Amino acid sequence: MPIDPSVAVGAELPEVTFSWTASDVALYHLAVGAARDPLDIEGLRYVDDANPKVLPTFATVAATFHATQAPAVSFPGIDIDLAKVVHGSQQITAHRPLPPEGKATTRKRIVEVQDKGTAAVIISEGVTVDETGEPLWTERSSIFAKGEGGFGGERGASSKVAYPDRDPDRRLSVPTLPNQALLYRLCGDRNPLHSDPGFAERAGFPRPILHGLCTYGSVCRAVVDEVLDGEVTRVADFSATFAGVVFPGETLDVAVWDEPDRLLVRASVIERDDAAALGNVVLDKRG
Fold it and tell me: How many structural domains comprise the chain?
């Protein structure tokens, strides 16, 4: 079915109510590279049995953490083959520190459909509230659908970040594990692009790729650890565009520019001549 923006834009998606535990939080943190050193006391706070600290990026998996099926890209006015789809961008705004366990409800809608000619970009926004109705986080994300453009829609505005014309203030080396995609899929993203070599080949990749949201969470975690002294509550907002693929086992070179109210970040892959991984990365500081 071709994309019909007149139906898609503004469409409300089914409301989702879900819960999570400290064990779910700990598994997510391990999947984005936390507690790599079992003697690092600050790192071990990510996997505390009762009261782990919680990265705001846990919000990207909280609602679907216990999913066991691959996602379907089927919304009002939109029905796309999963093999054509990659993540385009992600933003999480944490309205307050995320609790290590809880129950919440997400209400999401399609806010924009962009026509890039050879591809389409579908942008959604969701607001998550706790059991009392108080906001926990707002999520805004986009998916990039190859071959689904040309339906006559608006191209959309650019969200390019202007980086400082100077060397970064910090450079971080963030390794990934060869089996990291298999670990991350236990957080609810069962897209076979990240685990099935045959599916990955049909999608145009030589082997399964790392989830974009795993790269997103890993970079956020590394920046929090190395630049914000491990204080997850200092992250008010974290946004990024997915500029290229990362294969499990590769190492990310993360450049950080420290500004008064925010950090500007860029991530590339060392093993492939600094191939782009994440761009337009902005971490707004709290406090």
Answer: 1
Q: What is the pLDDT of residues 177-213, one digit of tens each?
A: 999 999 999 999 998 999 999 999 988 899 999 999 9
* Active-site hit among 29, 194, 225, 237: 194
Could you say which of 189, 211, 225, 237 is catalytic? 189
Q: Which two tokens stand for residue 285?
A: 């500081």
In the residue annotation, 189 being an active-site residue is answered as: yes
Q: Choose among 244, 284, 287, 251: nearest CA to 265.
A: 284
The model's confidence at residue 65, banded by pLDDT at 50, 70 and 90, is very high
Known catalytic residue at 194 = yes
In which domain, by residue range, is 46 found? 5-285
What's the pTM value of the predicted model, to 2 decimals? 0.93
Residue 174 is part of a domain; what is its CATH number?
Answer: 3.10.129.10
Structure-block tokens of residue 35: 């507690």
